[in-house]
Each structure stands twice: as structure tokens, then as C-alpha cells.
Design goal:
7-stranded mixed β-sheet; 6-stranded mixed β-sheet; Transcription Regulator spoIIAA; 3 domains; binds S-adenosyl-L-homocysteine; globular; 20 strands; alpha/beta; Rossmann fold; 12 helices; Archaeosine Trna-guanine Transglycosylase, Chain: A, domain 4
Length: 403
Amino acid sequence: MNTLQLSKGREASLLRHHPWVFSGAVARVTGNPTPGSTVQVVAADGKPLGWAAYSPESQIRARMWAFNAIVGDNFQVDAANIASRVQRALQRRQHLLGERRTAIRLIYAESDDLPGLIVDRYGDYLSCQFLSVGAEFWRDTIIAALNEHSPNRGIYERSDVTVRKHEGLESRKGLISGEEPAEFITINEADRLLDVSITEGHKTGYYLDQYDNRSLVQQLCTQAGRPLKVLNCFSYTGGFGIAALKGGAEHVTNVDSSGPALELAGRNLELNGFDPDQAELVQANVFDYLRDLKQQSGSRYDMIILDPPKFAETKHQFKRASRAYKDIALQAGALLNPGGWLVSFSCSGAIDPPLFQKITADALLDAGRQGRITHHLHQSSDHPVALPFPEALYLKGLVCHVD
Ligand code: SAH
């Protein structure tokens, strides 16, 4: 067996079952492991710690498959073991899927003991990303297990993402098995219908992580007991806007910089039977748009949703990202009617929940608004956080009710 030996004192995180071995912690690699193949990981004193997928090009030099402390000393990473991980991940979500929920994250990487693998279901199709050489190594096994345990009409690959470069992998996109998906697949999320483009959409097609939060927005609009005017910033294909209208909102403005996303947002309004007068689609940079609105007197909203892309890709960018989050929340704060809601999100892992709360508090203070947090939000339950791997928690949000 090829072996990866850690430097002295670098085993602490593995003893806590954290799944990553960084390059700086590696003393030596013996044998000649190929990318993605399994290495035995041992401490500086030779004590066996576990088995991992070896990634020679990545800063994350190995991703753990199993720990001796959990599985004993005679464990083997083989196809049967990988297939059973796929099956268990599917079983964990089984109760969530149904007629009223036809799209879901089936496999969420490290949190499902399958580092680097993302699999989402959209109706009859699966859309997946292989983001590590370890996942890539077991690709055929994973596909066979998905076809066996998660019946589908087709599996499409959306590994057309830059993170693959860090692993020494090429970008890849296309049909893996079954039938080519239609241009749009209609999904049902809690009776909200959405057309999703698996082949051209962002990520695997749609932002499934906001499922619970879209339902909450719908509920807030219903409970308000009056028709709300909603501004949905960074709307993508309008998921939050549909939720607001379903909840009884009077009018929604969807703002996004992407033309194709807004076109799809228009289709989605039609699909749910909403009158075109109830919604506006604005192609703009949200930063500029909010500033322009502030200049115009009279534009005020009862709810403003801010769901921007990741502003901080790395920890080093957190200051700049903090300023950007604060900027949009400040502008939004000034545009809210008394008794309105700010629903603000960050999907940057480098911004932790306490920092995000501080940024939001500072923004509303500078906007001259007082209020209170009514909901602390995070990613939906099909994106769980494995206890030893807090990095899996990336999406956080706050609902603030302002005076
Ligand atoms: N709220 C969406 C997901 C938003 S993803 C949902 O529930 O599905 C972030 C979106 O922000 C993307 O659609 C992207 O096109 C858009 N975007 C990125 N930068 C932007 C900017 N400066 N102004 C407007 N939209 C932007």
C-alpha cells in the first residue's frame, strides 16, 4: 500500500476526523500513488490513521475516505464501499422527495463521506460534479451506483468549474448516461414550479440550497397579512420571487445581471400562472441599481432579498467581501418601508455567521434603521454539515424586521 506520512504533530485534525490533509502537513509519500488512488495515512511515529484519496497537485493533498479509529485496521476502500456510500446518501434524503419536491441535492461531498462529489436530482435527471481526483478515480463506480439506486432518465455532468484545476483536472461537461435532457426541466419545489436548464444553468442548474429559505419567504409574505412589494436582488431565475408571489406578494422586481437567467425568470412566472404585471425583470448590476433607486424618491419596498454570489472566494478576500455585503445591505436598508423585511444572505465560507451578523447590523445602523433579527438562516437540510467538517456550512442568512 502507498503511504502518506504526516509531519510531527500534524495529526490533530485527523484525530478529530476532519477529512482534509494539507500539503504542508505531509512529511513524505512512499510508493508511487497515482492521482486519486488510495494511500494509507500514518502519523509521524508510523501510527496508522486512515485511508485517503491522494491528490498530488492540490493544496488539499489527500481527502480521507476512512479512519482507523472508526472502521478498524482491516478496512479497504473498494468499489463496494464507495457504492454503499452513494446508497446511504440517497437513503438519507428519501423521505424528503415526493410529488411536491422533485429536485434535491442527493450527494453533498464531504458531508456524505464522498469528498468532492456533488449530485443533484432535477425531476427525472441527475446533474453531477466531480470536483476532486478522488471522486474522479471512482467515477464509473459512482455512476453505476447512481443508476442502480436512483432511477433516472439521464445523468449529466457539470464539472465545468475552475476548482477542478486545483486538482489537476480538466473542465468537463456533457451527458454521462441515459438520454440528453431537454432544454428545460420543470421541477416542483413545494408547489412552486421552476424551469431549470441542467445544461446551461449555474452550478448543476439551480440553487437548491435556498429551498427552505424560499419557503420561509413565501410564509413571511403570507403571514404579513397585506400584499407586499418585494425587491428580489440577484434573482437568478426568480425562485424567491415566485415564492413571494405564491405567498400573496403584490409585486416583485427581480434584478440580475444575467440576461438568460432573467429570461428563465419570465418563463417561471408564466409557468406558475402569474400575471406579467405582477413582476418586473430588470437586467442590472445590483450595486448600481440600488444606488439609482435611492436617488429616485418614492421607490420603497416591504421586503428586500439580497442573495449575491460568493464575494469572498478565499479567506484573504474577506475584508473586501465584507464591504460589498455591507454596501448592498446599507442601500437596501434605506429603501425599506417601516415594518419591512431585509432578507440577506452570504454564501462565502470565509464570512462566518457572527461576522455576517455584525456586517448586517453595521449596515442597518449606517442606513439609520432600527430593527431586530427574526430568523437566522442557513442552507437547506439536503446540504447537511458533517460534524467534523464545519467548512460544509457556507450559506448563512438573516431576516431583519425593521421599524
Ligand atoms: N437567489 C437565486 C440565486 C442567486 S445566485 C436563487 O434563489 O435561485 C447569484 C446571482 O447573482 C446570479 O444569478 C448572478 O447572475 C447574479 N449576479 C452576480 N453579480 C451580480 C451583480 N453585480 N448584479 C446583479 N446580479 C449579479
